Amino acid sequence: MNFDPTVFWTVVLILADWTIRIIALFIVPKDRKPTAAMAWLLAIFLIPFIGVLLYLIIGNAKLPKKRRERQKEVDALIAQNVDAHDYTVDRSTWPAWFASIVKQNRTLGALPASGGNRAELIGDYQGSIDRMAAEIDTAQSWVNIEFFIVAWDDTTREFFAAMERAVQRGVKVRLMMDYIASAKVPIHKQTIAELDRIGVEWKYLLPVKPFKGQFQRPDLRNHRKLVVVDGHVGYTGSQNLISRDYDSPKNQKRGLKWQELVTRVTGPTVAAINTVFLSDWYAETGENLMQTAHVGVTELEFDESPDALVCQVVPSGPSFDEENNLRMFLGLVNAAQEKVIITSPYFVPDEAMMYAITSAKFRGLDVQLFVSEIGDQGMVWHAQRSYYEPLLRAGVRIFMYPGPFILHSKHMTIDDDTAFIGSSNMDIRSFLLNFEISMVVRGESFVRDMREVEEGYRKISRELTLDDWLNEPTRAKFLDGVARLTSALE
Fold first, then answer.
1. Which residues contact 397 (CB under 8 A, 6 or more apart)?
2. Buried (b) or exposed (e) across 426-454, using 16+ Cβ within 10 A?
3. With 0-12 CB in 10 A as exposed, 13-18 as middle and 19+ as buried, what is 51?
4. With bands split at pLDDT 50, 70 and 90, how would you rate the model's confidence at 220?
5. What per-residue string of b and e applies to 279-301 under the rule 16 or more CB within 10 Å gives b?
6. Nearest-angstrom CA–CA distance, 279 and 78
7. Which residues are CB-neighbours of 306 under 8 A, at least 6 positions away?
C-alpha cells in the first residue's frame, strides 16, 4: 500500500485537534470562573492551535510560586508588626456592615483600618504632580515612589528635579515602575537615563526578561500608584507619572487628555500605603525593608477632630489567592442603603458585580455610573458598552464624560459616609490580573468632597438614556458583544 502523506497529515491534525479539545475540557475549567472557562473553551474549540497557544501564554492568572510565597511572607510580617494600639477613634460607632467589610479586607489584604486620618482630593492633573514634587522637597530621610507608568517629560520635569534635590540632600529615593507599561513609552530610554543620572534607586515591577529568569504571564501588570514621603504623608489614586496625553503620538493626534483624581493622606494609614510599596520592593528585589524603611504608626500625626477619617488600604493582585478588590466592591455596593455612585474609566464587571449594581437599583437606591464618552482602548471600550443596556433597563443612570478627555479617575461613594478611591478599575483585569491599591474611607467630610467632584463630572457630562442606546448602530453593538466575549479570557 502506497504511503499518502496528505492522508497521514490529515489524520495527525484531526487527532491533534481532538486531543487538544479533550485535554482542554479537563484543564481549563479547573479553579476558573464558568464564564472565563467557557470563553477559553470557545477559543480553543474554534481555533484550537492558536487558542491553545494563547492559553499557554496568558491562561494562568497566577504569578510564579516564589512570588506568591513572598506575598505570604509579607502578610505574616504585617501581622507581626501591626502595633497593638487601637488607632480607630470608636469602633462602636461603626455599623455592623462596615465592621464586617473591614474584617474581610484585613483577612484578605493583611492591613488594618485606622482612625485619625485626613485626606484631601486633588483633581488638577499638573497640580497633583506639583504637590507631590513640593512634598519631596520637604523629605529628610526617604521617599518611596511607585507608578504604573513613569516618564520624564515637561509635565514631570519638576518632580524629577525634586527627586534630584532630595538625593543631593542625602535622602534615599526609591522608585518602582511597571516594566511593560513604562517601557513602551517612546521616551523611556531618556527616562531611565535621567533616573540613573540623578541617583534614584529604581526597579522594574514585573519585568518580562525570560533570558534572565524573570518571566510570568506577560499581561499581569502592577497598576499601583503611590508616593510616600518620610512616612508622614502619602498620595494614591488614579494618576500616572507622565504627561496628560501619555506622550503618545496617537493620543496627541486625537487630542486626548486624561482626567484624574488623587488623594493626599496624613495619619496612621500612611504607614499602610507605604507597606504596599515595601511589599512590592521585597517581591521584586528580595530586600526586606519592613523594619527600617518607614516610621512606626506611633510617630504619625493623629487627627482627633470630629472630621477625622477611618481609612483602610486594600492591596490586591495575582499574588493573592482571592480577588480582594472585587470582594470589597461587592461588600460596599451590597451594603448601600440610599446611593451608589461609581466612576470607572474601564467598566467591565463580572456577573456578581452586575448583579450587585442592578440589585441596588431594584432595592430603590439612586445608582449612577460615570464613564468616558470616548475610549482610548478599542476592545475595552466596546466590551464596556455591552453592559449599558442592562444597566439602563434596570434604571441605573449613566453619565458620559465628554471628549477629548478620558475620565481615568477610579472611585465610588455609597450613601453619605463611605467611599473608595485608588488605582483599581471596575473591570475583570483589575479584579484578577493587575496589582492594585485601593483605600476605603469612612467619613462624611470626605464623601462631601467626593460629591463635589461627582457634581463637577455631572455638570459637563451627557446622560445616556435607554432611547439613545437603542438607536446605536447595529454594527457597533455587534462589536460590543464580541469584545465582551474576549474580556472574559482571564
1. 366, 367, 368, 369, 463
2. bbbbbbbbbbbbbbbbbbebbbeebeebb
3. buried
4. confident
5. bbbbbbeeebbbeebbeebeebe
6. 10
7. none
Q: Is the pLDDT of residue 293 over 60?
A: no
Amino acid sitting at position 173: V
Return the amino acid letter for 281. Answer: W
Q: Rank 35-39, 386-390, 472-476 by mean pLDDT and report only the highest.
A: 386-390
Which whole-number Å values give the CA distances from 221 to 148, 177, 215, 434, in the listed order?
8, 10, 12, 5
Tell me, what's the pLDDT at 81?
Answer: 61
pTM: 0.89
Three-state DSSP at 315 gives strand
- The answer to whether the peptide bond before residue 64 is cis (omega within 30 degrees of 0) is no
pLDDT at 298: 46
> Per-residue confidence at 92, pLDDT binned at 50, 70, 90?
confident
Among 36-45, 165-174, 243-252, whose mean pLDDT is lowest? Answer: 36-45
Residue 101 · residue 332 · CB < 8 Å: yes
Got the DSSP string for 434-479?
A: EEEEEEEEE-HHHHHHHHHHHHHHHHHSEEE-HHHHHTS-HHHHHH
CA distance 193 to 152: 10
CA distances from 338 to 29, 179, 334, 419, 483 (A): 38, 42, 11, 13, 33
Residues 464, 397: Cα–Cα separation, whole Å? 7
β-sheet bridge partners, residue 398: 369, 464
Residue 478 pLDDT: 83
> 92 is written with which cell numbers?
462602636
Length of the chain: 490
> Are the C-beta atoms of residues 414 and 446 closer than 8 Å to each other?
no
Domains of the chain: 5-58 (no CATH), 65-316 (3.30.870.10), 324-487 (3.30.870.10)
* CA pair distance 127, 26, nearest whole angstrom: 53
Work out whether strand 339-343 and strand 366-372 pair parallel, antiparallel, or are unpaired. Answer: parallel
pLDDT > 80? residue 88: no
Q: How confident is the model at residue 242 (pLDDT cuts 50, 70, 90)?
A: very high
Distance between CA atoms of 216 and 26, rounded to whole angstroms? 23
DSSP symbol at 429: I
